[in-house]
Design a protein that fits this description.
Keywords: Membrane, Transmembrane, Transmembrane helix. InterPro entries: DUF2909 (IPR021313). It holds the Pfam family DUF2909. The protein starts with a helix and ends in a 7-residue tail after the last helix. The model has no long low-confidence stretch (mean pLDDT about 90). By secondary structure, the chain is mainly alpha-helical. The protein has a domain of about 25 residues. About 80% of the residues lie in helices and about 0% in strands.
Length: about 60
């Protein structure tokens, strides 16, 4: 379950990165959509780090 959640968060981060690149190319960085995409990506990165820390701390992701 934890591995699937980590994978989902990572895929969402990549999608946010692609959306941000699209906003940058379309709007030349003048819209708030690029900033919102960056905020979302940073939030997802913090969540990913927390999930990884949780998994290693409780032994869900470590070696058996």
């Amino acid at each position: 379950m934890l591995k699937a959640l980590i994978t989902l968060v990572f895929v969402c981060m990549v999608a946010s990165l692609a959306a941000g690149a699209g906003f940058l190319l379309r709007d030349q960085g003048r819209s708030r959509r690029l900033l919102i995409s960056l905020k979302l990506r940073v939030s997802l990165a913090v969540l990913l780090f927390a999930l990884l820390a949780y998994g290693f701390y409780f032994g869900d992701l470590g070696s058996p």
